[in-house]
Amino acid sequence: MPKIPEKLTNLSLFVGNTPALSITAEVNGQIYEIVAKYEAWNFSGSIKDRMALYIIESAYRLGRLKPGDTIVEATSGNTGIAFAAMGAFLGHPVQIYMPQWLSTERKRLLKFYGAKLIEISAEQGGFQECIRLSALKSAKKGYFAPKQFENSWNVLAHYSTTAPELAQSLQDHNFQKLDVFVAGVGTGGTIMGFQHYFSEKNPDFVAHPILPSKNKDGEHRIEGIGDSFIPKILDLEALSPIIRIRDAEAINVARQLNKKGLSVGISSGANVLGALRQASKLGTGKVIGTVLCDDNKKYLSTDLCSETIEVLGDEIKILDYKTLS
To answer: Which residues constitute the domain of residue 305?
Structure first.
């Protein structure tokens, strides 16, 4: 049985058990409430820490990752940052292939944690080329590739941690069940984990994936989702219809959440907007959940923090939020 580093056990204390929130908003004159997991409190500041830790732990147990091995991954940011931070803590060199068009903060954080960053332009092949190159590098001795877009441990991380944590918070605060879950699709790990977990509890449960209205590399501003291809672990047939969100709308809602003091990024704005649209469509009496994926610090140079005018299709006003746990 491969030995698990003691530091890895310590690292697990920094991941998961994040707060659950109740968010109240006005949509076209009606008041609705949704619930959300606030994932900025994880080790490197995003929900991707859950998947990164789960994959590292599993790889050590199976002998696929050994002390001193180099972790190599293709990412749009948060996953790479999670592996870079954990690699720095555990003593693993990290190499990251990332599309060139992503935010300056993502690139600087990766380098700050000590990762080697290789940027790929759209002309060079974009995200698909990042995946190809990282897989090619991982075939060499002493390299380990998490392969987040096809690794079932990605789904299991959310089935085993994020989803049951939210279920427990709902139970503790007298919510009967989770009826609907919405989440932006990067790898698909989060939404598939929630789909598997809650469909076992509630036969009427539905999960809606969120994608940008323009789902092509570099043509939208919702970083972390909508990477112009369908990941292998994402089963769209098991999910309810896709919700399309314009990046202007996601930025508008994310700005409103930040103005209330809640540190979130653009994809969190898309998730909250998608959840509120489902709430307004279904009416009161349904419990609708989502995740707030990361904090605002990776978006300081983006339009989240600029003076651009971002117009919503619906009249939405974020009113308040409170913790459930």
So the answer is: 6-46+152-323
Same domain, 170 and 317: yes
Do the domain assignments include residue 1? no
By the 8 A CB rule, do 44 and 82 touch? yes
Model-wide pTM > 0.90: yes
Catalytic residue among 44, 169, 267, 268: 267
Whether 103 is a known active-site residue: answer no
Asked if 186 and 76 touch (Cβ cutoff 8 Å), the reply is yes
* Residues, the chain: 325
**Whether residue 240 has pLDDT greater than 70:** yes
Residue 48 a catalytic site member: yes
In sequence order, what are the residues at sequence separation of 6 or more whose Cβ sits closer than 8 angstroms to the Cβ of residue 177?
170, 198, 201, 202, 205, 287
Which domain CATH number covers 81? 3.40.50.1100
- Choosing from 37, 48, 147, 298, the catalytic residue is 48
